[in-house]
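User: I'm writing a short report section on ligand binding and want a predicted complex to refer to. Could you take this sequence and uridine-diphosphate-N-acetylglucosamine and write out the structure as tokens? A short remark afterwards would be nice.
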Amino acid sequence: MGAGSGPEEPVGAGRPLLIHLVCGARPNFMKVAPLYHALSAKSWATPVIVHTGQHYDVNMSGSFFSEFGLPKPHVSLGVGSGSHAEQTARVMVAYEKVLQEQRPDLVVVVGDVNSTMAATLAASKLGVKVAHLEAGLRSFDRRMPEEINRLVTDVLADVLWAPSQDAVDNLLAEGIPPARIILVGNIMIDCLEMFRDRIERQRTYSDYGQTKGTYGVVTIHRPSNVDEPLILRELCGILERVSESIPLVFPVHPRTRQRIAADGLLREAQGERRLFLPEPLGYAAFMSLVFNARLVVTDSGGIQEETTYLGIPCLTLRENTERPVTVTHGTNRLCAPGELLSRVCEILKDGPRPAPSIKFWDGRTAERVVEAIGCEFGRPKGVESEVRSLEVPLN
Ligand code: UD1
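Assistant: Sure. The structure tokens for the complex follow:
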């Protein structure tokens, strides 16, 4: 990737804007992909993918690049795993050098992972403009590492692109000037709509001997659920009991797999024939499972949103959520482990519910973001037609 221009060159001098799209962990890739493709369709933008390497496995990272038609990351920082401070510090040190070499016009960070906060810190300290996509979400629970990342990122970012009105309200309540906040909608829905055809062609459930609407999907990886052996042991036992009511497909995140293996819970869980424990799946394969599921049990942020958009009942194994709109308007319900079995039984008795409509969860968030960048830097309009004509190569 070319190194861009020196800091002395005024922005808007006719050259394309150099825009870094920073990603690091699995939930970032589906947020960066629609934006990368939308920006690539603009002659005035040069999007550069910066991969911090927080996630590095093929099935946590590499597969998403090929699946989303993304190029190999233009910049790879290769930070890998570590404690929070180690991971954050490694991203800052490595990314600072890249920022000094390339001097991007804008750094876009997404979501709430350690890479998001670290890149924001490094860029802000060098006076590089930062935009945060998915700004303003708050669980109001600082025991979550992601909440710290959200707070730090939003207080430093110059531009805050919020997914929903509650996120806008949170930012205003924290004293962020309204001029920095734009409600752009939910970029995850763009990714889902971009790949809907591919998702709908898959029948992932058949790999587990299931049919449409007969099974549940489980994902669990939050430290609060998996890091404490007693809590994880209790959860595994409950999932086994739930699987007697409905078969469960549980693609196991590496963090969870490590803990289950370390505490000898994996064999217990595998002993139950209605509980399937594959490795993490690719995007379309996983979304195909969700599209056709009777219900979902999760502690993920993004899956709460996807199930709400699709109208699929979701039980979230957390005390709180930074995505309250999924509870107030959607299909999501917070649930303690001890309540899981009875909540599942309630859902199994209930009929299907219509999917709600939430403002700007419409597959056009990337368009709005591109338009916002264009306005910020005085670039030409006409966003809609160009982005609509985008074609993502099939792999
Ligand atoms: C991170 C994010 C979380 C996000 C999640 C999605 C933070 C604080 N947390 O949590 O918000 O929901 O990603 O997946 O940024 N590992 C592998 N292979 C990989 C990546 C990780 O084996 O490709 C292992 C690591 O060695 C580590 C564990 O998984 O032991 C956890 O990875 P880490 O990035 O620390 O956090 P996540 O739990 O994935």
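A remark for your report: The chain has 18 helices and 13 strands. Residues 84-102 form the longest helix (19 residues).
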